[in-house]
Specification:
There is one protein chain. This protein has nine helices and three strands, in the order ααααααβββααα. By secondary structure, the protein is mainly alpha-helical. It has a single domain, classed as Iron/manganese superoxide dismutase, C-terminal domain (minor pseudopilin epsh fold). Strands 2-1-3 form a three-stranded antiparallel β-sheet. β1 and β2 form a beta hairpin. α2 packs antiparallel against α4. The chain starts with a helix and ends with a helix. The structure holds fe (ii) ion (FE2).
Length: 258
């Protein structure tokens, strides 16, 4: 009898264990893997168009991911397709039906009334960003060449001195600002900066001149990639400076008449 009870107990225990195991199996929840369709798309610069008006976006001469890691793809996409587009559209609205409507951006900046905040901010924002895009290129950096290299040595003593002056000017800025390399009225190279969207072509600029290289140090230019590490962004900018284009800008600035 005892043997029969033991046998029945064993059968019952096995039945319970099998039942528990089956329950555990049915409770497993499958987590689906992300699909290719869920990848984030950052789009194409050429798809971004300004609304009707005198000015269209300066074409971005590389895709959004071309300047990584100095400028992250998302930073460049937001900067170009949102911030820059807004400045361009607002500039077109500000000059519509005014004396500025058919002027070049350089003439608008040189002649505008600094008390006209709408025009000042948006004309500056359009010009500064247009120059900033062209100041950079993928697989660039290095050092300037030809006549620009000679001029930098003449006016700063050496390329290293220029780099220290430019980085120093950028680092000491507080708040939203730009740093420029300019050709001043006497055709000398100088490093200068501006607050907000001001520009060395404006009559209120502390150093008047033609900008040939621009660095945007507004937070929107770097925060997604660097957070608070603005100095790292400033250092990294030197890895993407398009010295060939800056050299062309220098030659053009020498020919400019004030
Ligand atoms: Fe910007």
């Amino acid at each position: 009898m005892k043997r029969t009870n033991l046998l029945l107990s064993s059968i019952l225990m096995i039945a319970i264990l099998v039942s528990c195991n089956n329950k555990k199996l049915t409770e497993v929840v499958e987590v689906p893997l992300p699909t290719a369709q869920e990848k984030v798309s950052i789009g194409f610069p050429d798809d971004v168009k300004a609304s009707q008006g005198s000015f269209q976006l300066e074409k971005l001469p590389y895709p959004y991911d071309a300047l990584a890691p100095t400028v992250s793809p998302l930073t460049l996409q937001m900067h170009y397709s949102k911030h820059y587009l807004t400045y361009t559209n607002n500039l077109n609205s500000a000059i519509a039906g005014t004396e500025y409507e058919n002027q070049s951006i350089e003439d608008i900046l040189s002649h505008l009334d600094p008390n006209n905040a709408d025009l000042r901010n948006n004309a500056g924002g359009y010009y500064n960003h247009s120059l900033y895009w062209k100041s950079m290129a993928p697989n660039a950096g290095g050092v300037p060449t030809d006549t620009l290299a000679t001029a930098i040595k003449r006016d700063f003593g050496s390329y290293e001195n220029f780099m220290a002056a430019f980085k120093g000017e950028a680092t000491k800025q507080f708040g939203s600002a730009w740093v420029f390399l300019v050709v001043d009225k006497s055709k000398k190279l100088q490093v200068t900066s501006s607050q907000n969207q001001d520009n060395p072509l404006m009559k209120n600029a502390p150093i008047l001149g033609t900008p040939i290289l621009a660095l945007d140090i507004w937070e929107h230019a770097y925060y997604l990639g660097y957070q608070y590490r603005r100095r790292t962004y400033i250092d990294s900018f030197f890895n993407v400076i398009n010295w060939e284009k800056v050299g062309e800008n220098y030659e053009a600035a020498l020919r400019r008449k004030y």
